[in-house]
Amino acid sequence: MKRMARFQQTFASQSGFAKYGRKSKRELFLDPMNQVVPWSELLALVEPVYPKAGNGRQPVGLGIMLRTYFL
Question: Using the 8-state DSSP alphabet, how is residue 48 labeled?
């Protein structure tokens, strides 16, 4: 119970300062990329040929894989 109260206290203190935080280098790079690249159109184009989950290994999510290739 004490551990849960400590978790809630740290969560409350972190959420209060979220508006003052700096953006990471990753966020600074990905924000313009999300504005420029038409992700929904690309996902719709690639989805029919992307492997589906079956008896083998689970494929990585299409959105994640497409963004990785674009990096």
Answer: G
